[in-house]
Prior knowledge:
The protein is of the alpha+beta class. 45% of the residues lie in helices and 19% in strands. It has helices spanning 45-52, 62-70, 96-109, 114-132, 135-147, 161-164, 169-179, 195-206, 252-263, 269-276, 308-324, 328-345, 349-363, 369-377, 381-392, 410-416; strands spanning 3-7, 13-18, 25-31, 75-80, 85-91, 185-191, 225-230, 236-244, 281-290, 295-303, 397-402.
Amino acid sequence: xxxxxxxxxxxxxxxxxxxxxxxxxxxxxxxxxxxxxxxxxxxxxxxxxxxxxxxxxxxxxxxxxxxxxxxxxxxxxxxxxxxxxxxxxxxxxxxxxxxxxxxxxxxxxxxxxxxxxxxxxxxxxxxxxxxxxxxxxxxxxxxxxxxxxxxxxxxxxxxxxxxxxxxxxxxxxxxxxxxxxxxxxxxxxxxxxxxxxxxxxxxxxxxxxxxxxxxxxxxxxxxxxxxxxxxxxxxxxxxxxxxxxxxxxxxxxxxxxxxxxxxxxxxxxxxxxxxxxxxxxxxxxxxxxxxxxxxxxxxxxxxxxxxxxxxxxxxxxxxxxxxxxxxxxxxxxxxxxxxxxxxxxxxxxxxxxxxxxxxxxxxxxxxxxxxxxxxxxxxxxxxxxxxxxxxxxxxxxxxxxxxxxxxxxxxxxxxxxx
Length: 418
């Protein structure tokens, strides 16, 4: 495994995933902080910080941060999740030092000026409005709020409009001081980058970053429930969710296989029964969202509101049937899909960087792909049926967005699963 990790004297971890055949390199910083670490009165500050890191430093204007990386043909981006924030640049190998310099400049020397904050608030409010206009995304946000009631992890990643509109600069500066330190960060390189080179770059630029401990969050718990929001749109967007294993649980492997069998491919049960044989939907899928201490298994579908009466019983019947019956062919196909998806992902430099950063933050070390594949390939039909029973015998997390008059009441839907 071509992964190497070093720790600088201040506790900062530096990790590389060397890809001999790659033509580019990704250099970035993964920070172990996200929506679930935000203060109660500052929902969205993690995402605002991500935006503001691009708005100018002592040495570079907002324009220069982009122009400096783009003049060598590189790209730069960032993302915020409920548990992590990452900043990264993808460049040609000879420009790795420039990429590291720019990422360090952003994370260590951003000004967070009030002028830029005032402007960026409006950009983020537009982003929130755009998200609300996409029901296929908004329904998942509603589902998280329902599944994690009165918990930071369940709040919107983009933040609440009333909070963003008034968020002061002091909240941003305090958040960065509290969480952006050596003990909560990993400098990652993937692609054509030598470990000793990245260690030297990181030591020069991040060597004085203060020590600290990994950010802690309140323990998450998942609750079942019923949330329906009427919207005058063409389709009804529906999620049937269930409490599921965290990414630290061994049951994560059969849960992943179950998601493929139910709705992970065009030959999956739900796709065939719901779309191909009945034409009830354009989109239907199953997936397992896993966090450090909780998870949600979800079935999502978007349908003509007039046909939801037919759709729900079909989905519920499949959730019952998979607890009793899984064929050898289904298991083989799901394992083949899981294996191919993982191995094909090894060709993607950005994906390798993201996986490495996430694993070190989540587990304290990289997890060998051979180990993951071994665990997936060891899953049996009995394992999948057992996790299906464990998941689908719980009361569902039912979230619906759109015209709702034809959707059965919660008790009737929950009763179909018993």
